[in-house]
Specification:
Layout lengths: L3 E5 L11 H6 L1 H14 L3 H6 L8 H21 L6 E4 L3 H8 L5 H18 L5 E7 L3 H9 L4 E8 L2 E7 H13 L4 E4 L12 H11 L11 E2 L6 E2 L5 H8 L6 H10 L4 E5 L4 H9 L4 E5 L4 H9 L3
Parallel strand pairs: 1-2, 1-9, 2-7, 9-10
Antiparallel strand pairs: 3-5, 3-6, 4-5, 7-8
């Protein structure tokens, strides 16, 4: 019997039209999109399905992504595909929380709207930046960032791809030092803030106030937290982990290795694009990964799992 992990991409993967096929073909998906619009006071279908500038603005991106991912996941579950554990990259962790039964759809979508606003307002425009560091060992990157003020490791994505974040000038200086240390390239990212850096500690504290109003349940299946790449099976530590996640490194590579150690042999990426699928493949070349972003993809997952 296969052991299945649902994995969910984060901010940056959003595309216009995400989830539209599911909305048009599933009453369950339609209800999630329509209710999300009611909860937030604006049309989620217009945001996700019609070309617009708001989809790339953090406070809108975050609820849009979680809505689309959860809608896709619920249709997948209706087709007999269920997860043994779940994980998500940064924002995607909230979709994983829904998959694990920790939060309901409404709380997750409302929370990430507030999270997006807090992250967006945390640092004035232009004062923070992020850069992808390619083809350099993590230890060397840690040595450089730990020797500097104002720069942190934001994401351990996969071997050869780590993202740094922090004050704009510090990130630029770190990028130069990392190239001198042997990085193949350092690419400045088109982002609206220095996410997963020490500059967002206050945003994480304020998120705690939002989470105080949210019902957090014991996970029905384990999920892997970004902050420590550990299986979370009790609700007591979840709020603290989510508050810290905003300003802490996303340990995605370590999370995938944890899932592999726990016996996961099928990864199902749910959401737009194949970003996480590519990361998993770089971590374990022969891993079985199926991505779901179109209705037709459900058949691929069922075939991979031998579900008739």
């Amino acid at each position: 019997m296969s052991k299945v992990a649902f994995i969910f991409p984060g901010q940056g993967a959003q595309v216009c039209g995400m989830g539209q096929e599911f909305y048009e073909n599933s009453e369950t998906a339609k209800q999630i999109f329509d209710k999300a619009g009611e909860w937030l006071g604006f049309s989620m279908t217009e945001l996700c399905f019609t070309p617009n500038d708001r989809l790339d603005i953090t406070e809108y991106t975050q609820p849009a992504m979680v809505t689309a991912e959860v809608a896709m996941m619920r249709v997948l579950e209706e087709n007999g595909v269920h997860a043994d554990m779940a994980a998500g990259l940064s924002l995607g962790e909230y979709s994983a929380l829904v998959a694990a039964g920790v939060m309901n759809e409404e709380d997750a979508i409302r929370t990430v709207r507030e999270r997006g606003i807090l992250m967006q307002e945390a640092v004035p425009a232009g004062e923070g930046a992020m850069a992808a560091v390619l083809a350099l060992d993590a230890v060397k990157i840690e040595e450089v960032t730990e020797s500097m003020e104002g720069v942190w490791i934001a994401n351990y994505n996969c071997p050869g791809q780590i993202v740094i974040s922090g004050e704009t000038e510090a990130v630029k200086e770190a990028a130069e030092r990392l190239k001198e240390a042997g990085a193949k390239r350092c690419v400045m990212l088109n982002v609206s803030g220095p996410f997963h850096s020490g500059m967002l500690v206050e945003a994480g504290r304020k998120l705690g106030e939002v989470l105080d109003e949210v019902s957090i349940s014991k996970p029905v299946i384990p999920y892997i937290a970004n902050v420590n790449a550990e299986l979370i099976t009790e609700e007591s530590q979840i709020k603290d982990l989510l508050c810290r996640q905003v300003s802490s490194s996303v340990r995605w590579e370590q999370s995938v290795r944890k899932m592999l150690d726990e016996g996961v042999d099928v990864f199902v990426e749910i959401g737009p694009g194949k970003t996480l699928s590519s990361f998993v493949k770089k971590i374990k070349r022969d891993a079985l990964v199926v991505n779901v972003e179109h209705v037709a993809d459900i058949a691929k997952v069922k075939e991979a799992l031998g579900i008739v």
